[in-house]
């Protein structure tokens, strides 16, 4: 077992669970934050854009074509030979299973050939721990809002592999709702960044949209009713006369509703998370939607009002990337955790089930 306190760890991370093919070499000395020695990321956006969403078969084939080269480039950029690695970590779920199998199999192959430990990473754990890669001060437990294209959850992060779900979406994930509304408004794919841009000069108060679940007990979310309300609002506007002002205002009104819902549900989670004596706990927001500037601002203010320290990884670490996978590998390896080469990739893999693996 590796001595976590004193050792210096270098791990190759591989991410292929959706439409990003990525490899990164991450390093940590002692128990501090990490350093990304090299990172290569290829977005498959152009390949999926004509279909208005990710096509699993196309994604898996693209990972197969590009992953080997990206790993080689990352190792060269880091100036390291595979023998300098302490382990190989690859996303093993949840996600599109074809892509996950490509990345996990590649990770296992490198580990087997080089005699290195293989670490199967839960993609959500990658997002959940990513903040500790850049901020060594983040101590467990912390409150986490995980908002991505496939997930919308509030979790208490008690430690590596130890997650308590406080609430989650009962229908669409928040990123999914951004993507669907953007598609509906003709903004293209991926919808989140496009919608944020469209909303920039819009009037968020022009259209009255619902705030699903706001004010309810617990920490659950719902976004499908909001999406329907946007569609109905757009349909009520005079046909053929949907102006760029209408587009900006409707985008801004939708985004404002999402901001309110995320803030309301997070406030409820803060109340149930409670506060230990001493240092204020961290409220961490991670996942692709955490790249959204108005959402970050609102959540930062909310945290301040409720005695939490707001922390969000930089936007490039919020959207899918391999550095967070390499980092989760370092966190696990430091605890002596690694996986067998026959580990089966899992298309569904809730964070709460991690402790048992
Ligand atoms: O974490 P991520 O890269 O992939 C998943 O694991 O799902 O998240 C992607 C999601 C997409 O739904 C995308 O539209 C959304 O994050 N997203 C955003 C923004 N940037 C990405 N949503 C709102 N505003 C953004 N700026
Ligand atoms: Zn993700």
Estimated share of beta-strand residues: 15-25%
CATH class of the largest domain: Alpha Beta
Low-confidence stretches: none
Radius of gyration: 21 Å
Q: Number of DSSP strands?
A: 10
Number of domains: 2
Summarize the helix and strand pattern as letters: EEEHHEHEHEEEHHHHEHEHH
CATH superfamily of the largest domain: ATPase, nucleotide binding domain
**How can the largest sheet be summarized?**
5 strands, mixed
Judging by the overall fold, what is the CATH architecture of the largest domain? 2-Layer Sandwich
Overview of the structural elements:
This protein is α/β, with parallel strands linked by helices. It folds into 2 domains: 167 residues, ATPase, nucleotide binding domain (Nucleotidyltransferase, domain 5, 2-Layer Sandwich), CATH 3.30.420; 175 residues, Nucleotidyltransferase, domain 5, CATH 3.30.420. The protein contains 11 helices and 10 strands. The protein has a 5-stranded mixed beta sheet, sandwiched between helices. It has a 5-stranded mixed beta sheet with strand order 8-7-6-9-10, with helices on both faces. Strand 4, helix 3 and strand 5 form a beta-alpha-beta unit. Helix 5 packs parallel to helix 7 and helix 6 crosses helix 8. The model has no long low-confidence stretch (mean pLDDT 93). 5'-O-[(R)-(carboxyoxy)(hydroxy)phosphoryl]adenosine binds next to helix 5 and helix 6.
């Amino acid at each position: 077992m590796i001595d976590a306190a004193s050792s210096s760890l270098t791990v190759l991370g591989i991410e292929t669970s959706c439409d990003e093919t990525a490899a990164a070499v991450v390093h940590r000395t002692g128990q501090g934050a990490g350093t990304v020695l090299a990172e290569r990321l290829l977005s498959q956006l152009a390949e999926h854009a004509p279909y208005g969403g990710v096509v699993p078969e196309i994604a898996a084939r693209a990972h197969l074509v590009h992953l080997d080269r990206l790993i080689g480039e990352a190792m060269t950029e880091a100036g390291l030979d595979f023998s300098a690695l302490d382990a190989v970590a690859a996303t093993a779920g949840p996600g599109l299973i074809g892509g996950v199998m490509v990345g996990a199999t590649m990770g296992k192959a490198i580990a087997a050939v080089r005699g290195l430990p293989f670490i199967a990473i839960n993609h959500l754990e990658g997002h959940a721990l990513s903040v500790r890669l850049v901020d060594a001060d983040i101590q467990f437990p912390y409150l986490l809002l995980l908002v991505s294209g496939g997930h919308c959850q509030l979790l208490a992060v008690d430690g590596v592999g130890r997650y308590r779900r406080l609430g989650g979406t009962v229908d669409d994930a928040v990123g999914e709702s951004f993507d669907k509304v953007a598609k509906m408004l003709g903004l293209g794919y991926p919808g989140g960044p496009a919608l944020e841009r469209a909303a920039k000069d819009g009037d968020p108060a022009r259209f009255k949209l619902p705030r699903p679940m706001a004010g309810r007990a617990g920490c659950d979310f719902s976004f499908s009713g909001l999406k329907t309300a946007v569609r109905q609002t757009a349909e009520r506007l005079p046909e053929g006369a949907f102006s760029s002002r209408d587009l900006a205002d409707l985008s801004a009104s939708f985004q404002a509703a999402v901001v309110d819902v995320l803030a309301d549900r997070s406030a409820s989670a803060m109340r149930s998370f409670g506060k230990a004596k001493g240092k204020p706990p961290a409220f961490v927001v991670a996942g692709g939607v955490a790249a959204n500037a108005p959402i970050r601002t609102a959540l930062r203010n909310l945290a301040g009002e409720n005695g939490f320290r707001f922390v969000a990884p930089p936007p490039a670490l919020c959207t899918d990337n391999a550095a967070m996978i390499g980092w989760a590998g370092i966190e696990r390896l430091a605890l002596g955790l690694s996986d067998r080469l026959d580990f089966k990739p899992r298309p569904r893999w809730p964070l709460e089930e991690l402790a048992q693996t």
